[in-house]
Design goal:
With 166 residues, this protein is mostly helical. The protein has seven helices and two strands, in the order αααβααβαα. The protein starts with a helix and ends in a 5-residue tail after the last helix.
């Protein structure tokens, strides 16, 4: 019942992502997250609001809480956007074969994808890298994976990789 629980669920995810982010900040190791605290707010919570599954008041309260929380965080060294068309995303979802994803509509994925594109355009918290991935297969093609790794290395100055060692 997303209409009743979307706000509570998003606050739960906000707390979870905050703790994960703080854990990364306090660790001496590098880390890669597949979803950030920023995406939860700008894409998923916003989408729930736009779909009418979260009230305006709840969304505004959630977003104010989000802004307060992220003001205490250091942004990632590099934000990587793996950009893919809705058609290709639907292919990937089908390939995964997860029961919970079998009824996801292309319209829903398209709306999320559009919100990602808007967010990519306005991301200003630090370095970011956008990689068009429609023609890339990181899982089955080592050359494609190496291309991604090379792009990441090019985007991060070497000194950024070792800041925690100083």
């Amino acid at each position: 019942d997303m209409n009743s629980y979307s706000f509570q669920l998003q606050v739960y995810f906000l707390n979870h992502r905050f703790n994960a982010h703080k854990g990364i900040e306090t660790s001496s190791f590098s880390a890669i997250q597949d979803r950030s605290i920023y995406e939860d707010a700008h894409i998923f919570a916003k989408n729930l609001y736009l779909q009418g599954k979260m009230t305006k008041r709840d969304f505004e309260n959630y977003f104010e809480l989000y802004k307060t929380i992220v003001s205490s965080l250091n942004p990632p060294t590099l934000m990587i956007f793996l950009k893919r068309s809705t058609d290709k995303l639907m292919e990937r979802i089908k390939l995964r074969g997860r029961d919970c994803e079998k009824d996801i509509s292309p319209d829903y994925i398209d709306q999320l994808n559009n919100l990602y594109h808007i967010w990519y355009e306005s991301y200003d918290l630090g370095k970011h890298l956008i990689v068009e991935t429609d023609e890339l297969d990181f899982l089955n093609n080592e050359d494609h994976f190496e291309l991604l790794v090379d792009r990441i290395h090019d985007a991060i100055e070497q000194k950024d990789l070792f800041l925690t060692l100083q």
